[in-house]
Design brief:
Strand order of the largest sheet: 1-2
Structural class: mainly alpha
Distance between the termini: 15 Å
CATH class of the largest domain: Mainly Alpha
Low-confidence stretches: 1-18, 20-33
Strand content: under 5%
Number of domains: 2
CATH superfamily of the largest domain: Vanadium-containing Chloroperoxidase, domain 2
Radius of gyration: 22 Å
Largest sheet: 2 strands, antiparallel
Number of helices: 14
Amino acid sequence: MQRKPKATWAVGLAAVATLMTFVAVLLGGAAAPAQAGPPENAVLDWNLHAVDALVNSPSAPVPGAGQTPPVSILHLAMVQGAVYDAVNMIDGGHEPYLNDLPPAPGSASKAAAVARAAHDVLVGVVVGVPVVPPLTPAIIAAIVDRLDDLYADSIAAATVEDGAAAVNAGITAGAAAAEAMLEERANDGRYGSFMFTPGFDPGEWRPSPPAFVNDPFAWVARVDPFLLKSTSQFRTKGPHALKSGAYTKEYNEVKALGETDSPRTPEQNAVAGFYTNNVPPPELFNRTFRVISESEGLTLVEQARLFVMLNMAGADALINCWDDKALWSFWRPVTAIHEGDDDGNPRTVGDPDWTPLGGNPPYPDHPSGYNCATSAFMHTADAFFGKKPLSFNVVRIVPGVPDVTRSYNQFTDVVDDTIDARVYQGIHFRAADVQGAGIGKDVAHWLDKNFFQSVK
């Protein structure tokens, strides 16, 4: 399949620093130190190294760039795309992501190809990160040094397993795949100047308490998709009209269930406390699928294909989601409930003291980014594993508190929980969650029908 051609409030450094500090606090110890494993685990190992490098806080025991979920998933998609192409250059069993890559000998070391592709893309995107506190040039250098060490370990292990000639051929394939990916994404709109536009009429989004920050990463809405034809390919219906019965119902639901001291059931509290902003989807679900990959006995080739599908689906879902947020620019429940007496709907009773259980992200309500990403991951996995029941766990890991596990038999059941969770946390109207999940599902189905197909 041919790749497609490339197609206001200002926010100061203080606002960027505020948001990155918030992310850093949440992700302060996201992962234990990672070491190079055996060559057959190369895809899973380098997925973990990528998450550590991109998602971990700069102050974590294993320091990372502390990127927010929409930014880190873009870079994970780049890493996994290069890894997939490098492996496929050797295996040749599926359509490439990028065309015009030369085939590699079938005897080439796939583990070496994975390590080189992932390392080079990670170094390329980490070095290109804008240096805003708490990120510093010293931390970026430390991340790169660690990636260099892990790469050396991976190549040494692959050489013992596969031999020097096979490793050299694998390195060549990985380097070519990484170079092609970095070139493809060099002018894709990342780190652009686009910002969400606040308004002050009923229904219009504006920065929310307590930080009152306008998202410095709103430019995700204008990034070239990896697989979609445009950033708005899957447009939602949008939020309900303020005077409608549907809006009134959702307003009263989140008002009743989403406040700090709302009378939620134990299960509602469990769901609300599990899928929070301090367990971001890129880390949570990449980790989940590393475990599933091992338990299901996936080969290295199958793992490379699974992780490119998961992360490119997640990236495109969030790009489409952020574009949709920019279009609808709908207010958060906290703003709506504070202004409920002045929204033109006599059935929405305002409460200026209402406080949501969860923290308000610094961007519009509609649609829900968490659900866009979660749904993309889960519907992609559902297609990959043949739409059959599969028992698995999702484990919430937050430093300083015991791990919490939720068990599932269907991938799409996770989406039901994340839809409810964002309502119970008081940070989304239900329509934002349901329609966000719809974006993720549509992206996953588009990917399944059009990309990474078998050629054997």
